[in-house]
Amino acid sequence: MFRALIVDKDDTGYHADISDISEEDLPVGDVTVRVEYSTLNYKDALAITGKGRIVQRFPLVPGVDFAGIVEASGHAKFVPGDRVVLTGFGVGESHWGGMAERARVKGGWLVPLASGLSTARAMAFGTAGLTAMLSVMAIERHGVVPTDGPVLVTGAGGGVGGIAIHLLHRLGYTVVASTGRAHEVDYLKMLGADEVIDRGTLSAPGKPLGKAVWAAAIDNAGSHTLANVCAGLKDDGVAIACGLAQGMDFPATVAPFILRGVTLVGINSVNRSIAEREQAWARLATVPDFRVIDRMTTEIPLSQAIEGANRLLEGAVLGRLIVNMGSK
User: Fold this and answer.
1) pLDDT, tens digit, for every residue of 286-326?
2) Do 259 and 294 have their domain in common?
3) How far apart are CA 154 and CA 137, in angstroms?
4) CATH of the domain at 17
5) Minimal CA–CA distance to 65: which of 120, 137, 132, 28?
6) What DSSP character marks residue 304?
7) What's the domain range around 205?
């Protein structure tokens, strides 16, 4: 028997409880992993609290990310003892996820943990870090270099935004962070932001084309913010869309794309290829200053995951929350 956070729904409503289950309860898969760490993403918080339509089948173990040690494998790529990480692929939504001491999944969803990364630090990144690195790699792929000008990061106080700021800083870019919370300024500068601006300057309806300010941007907001981001990019600038905190709409014009040659790139980290994931994780193992990553990370036991999910939705969490499955 082992512990798991189970979400379920019945005639009395939505429930999230920590229970003891057995390996026989786990879903079908060809690799069983002893989970050492998971993490609380915004999507996980919605799944645990029932405040978002994340869970697609009941009962379900939430947790879209986990890192741990292979215990049993019927997959050619993995053997017992291998250190692995998983993000996305519907895990924690339609397939039991990482908020348990054991997980059984398809081996094709797993990535070998990059040398130099512990399971705890892998979850300090999780989906947020993978998305941030894929976004940075897209900026590099489109030829934007540090001397081209500053890079804007919106939604800077979230997991993706914070890690993106730090990665860009470590790679030599000048970083402008956008946030709606004044108390985050020192934290964002600790991560590597050179300038912090109020998100209110971007979140209202704006002009089709604004002053050319940024060489690139990583946007976690969508809606008017993304439209204003595109309007403020320099010639041949690139906007990376990886979030929709403000909304799914995109009230923009074609002006930035036609008159300045701006490129808009979307990032889907859920179903990215294993090859791209391995490349991104390899860089996450080498680019960051782990002293900074440790400062932005708070570790909690599984027993506090439900409380942590509520705090996350209340905006009371700064940085990353990782869940230690071996801690009571």
Assistant:
1) 999 999 999 999 999 999 999 999 999 998 888 999 999 98
2) no
3) 17
4) 3.90.180.10
5) 120
6) G
7) 127-266
